[in-house]
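FIELD: query
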Amino acid sequence: MPYANIHYIKLQIELLNDKRFIFDCDQEQKWLYIGLLLLAGDTKNCTSSDENYLKNRLNIDLSPEKVKENVKHLASIFPKMVCKGGYVKFKKFNELHNYLEPKKRKPEGTPKELQRVMQSIVEYIIVKKSIVVDEKNPYLKQHVFKRYIKSAKELALLTNCNEELAKKAIDWVSGWCGEKNFNWELETVIKHYINGKSCNFNKAPKKEYKTTL
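FIELD: result
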């Protein structure tokens, strides 16, 4: 089923009686699991498994290493949660959210959807480039978003609001520039995406290298 205009996900009551959730998860892991379900709805069931991204996106007060460990633990006890290719996905996710039937489906790239993808791209760039954003300094956060939002819009439009494809492009450029010791920005991603012939974003991303501004 198409993932369009997702407003909620079904948190089934049976989860409260699931022994895996009750006995095999601590409090941090329980919130992480619920948070991943919510993010699946926000990312069309294609959530980055990057521990820094999850820590910032879900405001988790744990080290990135502990977040990564918890994701691995959840994947080991919940078979329908799959971590592969740098993303977390849930099997049969169409049964857990409100979807639109094909005949009622609205076209990609509605203003609301575009804004959501733009924000997601900026948040992903902040993580990939290890940009430190102090939540107590709203001016700094506003400045970072202002710096990247125009390019994020361009990438969102180029990918037809395909968030997964946009993130794959960012992953590819990050790895390629890291191997060659080049600096890169979101504009670099757009340049390579438009060029197209020099890369294949459908391939698994290369080893990631993080840079700082």
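FIELD: remark
The chain has a mean pLDDT of 80.
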